[in-house]
Design goal:
It is a single chain. By secondary structure, the protein is α+β, with helices and mostly antiparallel strands. The chain has a domain of 266 residues: Alpha/Beta hydrolase fold, catalytic domain (Rossmann fold, 3-Layer(aba) Sandwich). It contains twelve helices and 38 strands. An eight-stranded mixed β-sheet has the order 31-32-34-33-35-36-37-38, with helices on both faces. The radius of gyration is 25 Å and the shape is globular. The two termini are 30 Å apart.
């Protein structure tokens, strides 16, 4: 299948797909047979080829890994969060892959969180869960649920040891430290306790792995006796479950890409019939937050960027306006506390927080000095509180945790993530780096924002190498974030840029709508426009530009490879959604039906079929001079199946054999890649080494 001097060659098995009078021959469909030894042998051969082709980078990979490790305070402790009579926090220990989840009792007169600057355990610590012990004997480990009951006695947690995001749910008695016999396999994310902790609600999936059922488990009974609270039969919708911050109601969230419905159960009557807040109406999205005598409703009914209303908690009915719609200011969520509401919003491409006092008076925005930043609420489980826990970061400022006094408006920095000295022994100084926003002009005249960060003094004469990152789907915003691993690129003279293309949510709901369905190509042309702009403005040049994206951002990578191969010297596509049309045509695959409101339904609509076929990367591979491509995937990924990038690389080699195409498959991982932190650092070092090699900085 492969030799030391030639890449793997996938056999061709013509398989016809016929829709709307169109025939497509898929010669590599056989790679979808995950249990076929020939498939595994091919993936192993690809891994061996990738290792051989990158063996000259092994020393650099080690250097980059060590730079991440050296800059990271490996033994560390998160800022504790108060809930009831305890402070909850997570510790990491040098040499250990996973976090240790702990709590410590609140002491008399203690109003501020106890902080351990060296990461040492707090005096009086109680270990709730040690991820390292749970992970022993497994190549992969992830936590799904981690939910302490309202009385603080029980911990519901769930584990996944393969990466397929299907968890086994267990319950631990925190008083005795013992695991209870209650054990529920095959669960999904999301749990909610009843007020007295006698009942636990949870979620399961259907055969297409769509979260479709909410269950009620009575403590001390067998899982086979559990009762379905809600079963969602409409395949466009998925379900979730949560307990309100007030701990008064269990919420059942039901949503498609365009429509939502919320049902509530009193937490003190968990066997009661769920009450509908408002029946679903196509195109109307809303979310619910409980606050005293009312339910707060964040909705888009006649409000493109959302508005806030409320209805009675005793008898939900008409919605009474609270905050009117303001075009251009996207309201993203509302959090209710006893005496304040906090609105998370975005305006002009930046996130923000607005505080509204219940007692009356004008609301106010919490101010931050940097022109580019990301701010949001951190964990705030207490309903009656005078303080907010915030999390703040930017492209140059590490993750920072603040407390905000709701009365005095004082902002107190509790902790900034330490960045230890790098290879040169110098302490990290944000002023050594610069960040700024630039704008590209899309083909239709739309201005597309670009966020950039680089080391101070980096030339702007077209000689600097650059990495351009993009996503552009699901209204997900690529807000500025800090990365220790990225410092290794910046210190080698690389400019890092983020293209905020349409399909994301950076500039409000309209920005999203203009990059989905039959406007999806705007996502791709926006990214190319950003690449062209960076070269024209002197930030870089096409032969010094590497593009990077993952998942739906991997679709973006595959599309721009076909659209503008001359704009890049390399492309990194991680868990890439590159066989989009084949996947969206198959309702039996995970998540397909729920995705029709994002991409369109090519099964039912010939126009959607033709439009998707015109851009889906796999089917549009042509005899082009492609840049070097590194595709990375995971065998147990349930969101973007491994065979999409495997087929894509095989087709690229067959149709454009002069190119350099590599496929790296994690054989024991899921959509997020390796689970342990050291393994994740090694993967990032692998990507960055390949990137630096393409940029001439290896």
């Amino acid at each position: 299948m492969t030799t030391e001097t030639s890449p793997p060659v996938a056999k061709r098995v013509p398989t016809e797909r016929i829709h709307h009078g169109d025939t497509f021959v898929d010669e590599y469909a056989w790679l979808a047979a995950k249990d076929d030894p020939e498939t595994i042998a091919y993936l192993d051969a690809e891994n061996a080829w990738t290792e051989a082709r990158t063996s000259h980078l092994s020393r650099l990979r080690t250097e980059l890994f060590e730079e991440i490790r050296r800059r990271t305070q490996e033994t560390d402790l998160s800022v504790p969060t108060r809930k009831g009579g305890h402070w909850y926090y997570t510790r990491t220990v040098e040499g250990q892959q996973y976090g240790v989840h702990c709590r410590r009792a609140v002491r008399d007169g203690e109003t501020t969180p106890p902080i351990s600057s060296d990461g040492a355990p707090l005096d009086g610590e109680e270990i709730l869960l040690d991820g390292n012990l749970l992970a022993e004997g497994h190549d992969f480990f992830a936590l799904g649920a981690f939910d302490v009951s309202p009385d603080g006695r029980f911990l519901a947690y769930s584990t996944d040891f393969s990466g397929d995001e299907r968890f086994t749910l267990r319950i631990k008695d925190l008083d005795s430290g013992e695991l209870l016999p209650d054990e529920i396999p095959g669960t999904f994310y999301g749990t909610a306790w009843s007020a007295d902790a006698s009942v636990l609600c949870y979620v399961t999936v259907d055969e297409a792995w769509r979260p479709n059922r909410v269950w009620r488990h009575v403590m001390g009974t067998a899982a086979t006796d559990d009762v379905v609270v809600h079963a969602e039969d409409d395949e466009r919708f998925w379900v979730g479950v949560e307990l309100t911050r007030s701990e008064r109601f269990i919420l059942i969230d039901i949503a498609s890409k365009l429509t939502s419905e919320v049902r509530v159960i009193p937490a003190d009557n968990p066997t009661g019939e769920p009450a509908v807040i408002a029946p679903r109406r196509q195109g109307v999205e809303y979310s619910v937050e409980h606050h005293g005598h009312r339910f707060l409703i964040l909705h888009n009914d006649g409000a493109e960027d959302f508005a806030l209303a409320y209805t009675s908690a005793d008898a939900p009915g008409d919605w009474v306006p609270l905050i009117d719609h303001s075009p251009g200011t996207r309201l993203e969520s509302v959090d209710a506390f006893a005496n304040h509401l906090v609105i998370s919003l975005r305006n002009n491409g930046l996130t923000g927080l607005r505080v509204l006092p219940i007692a009356g008076g004008d609301g106010h925005d919490i101010e931050f000095p940097e022109p580019l930043h990301t701010v949001g609420l951190d964990s705030n489980p207490e309903y009656r509180t005078s303080r907010l826990r915030l999390r703040y970061t930017s492209l140059v400022v590490p993750d920072s945790v603040y407390d905000y006094d709701l009365t005095t408006r004082e902002l107190t920095l509790l902790r900034r993530r330490p960045v230890l000295p790098g290879p040169d022994g110098r302490a990290y100084q944000p002023e050594d780096y610069e960040q700024q926003r630039d704008w590209a002009l899309a083909d239709d005249g739309t201005k597309v924002p670009i966020s950039l960060v680089y080391r101070r003094g980096t030339p702007r004469d077209g000689s600097a190498p650059c990495v351009l990152y993009g996503y552009g789907s699901y209204e997900a915003s690529m807000d500025p974030w800090f990365s220790v691993g990225r410092l290794s690129l910046l210190d080698r003279g690389v400019v890092f840029a983020v293209a905020h293309v349409r399909g994301g949510g950076e500039l409000g709901r309209r920005w999203y709508d203009q990059g989905k369905m039959l406007a999806k190509k705007n996502t791709f042309t926006d990214f190319v426009a950003c690449a062209r702009h960076l070269a024209k403005a002197g930030w870089t040049a096409p032969d010094r530009l590497v593009a990077r994206g993952g998942s739906a951002g991997g679709l973006l990578m595959g599309a721009v490879a076909n659209l503008a191969p001359d704009a890049f010297t390399g492309i990194v596509a991680q868990v890439p959604f590159v066989d989009a049309l084949s996947t969206i045509l198959d309702p039996s695959l995970p998540l397909t039906v729920t995705e029709w409101e994002e991409w369109g339904n090519p099964l039912a609509d010939p126009e959607v079929y033709a439009y998707m076929k015109s851009y889906t990367p796999y089917e549009n591979v042509a005899a082009l001079d492609y840049p070097a491509i590194l595709a990375m995937t995971s065998l147990n990924d349930t969101r973007v199946l491994y065979h999409e990038p495997a087929k894509w690389i095989a087709r690229l080699r067959a149709v454009a054999p002069q190119g350099e195409y590599l496929l790296k498959t994690e054989m024991e991982a899921g959509h997020g890649g390796p689970s342990g932190r050291y393994d994740a650092w090694r993967e990032e070092a692998f990507v960055n080494a390949w990137t630096l090699d393409r940029l001439g900085r290896a």
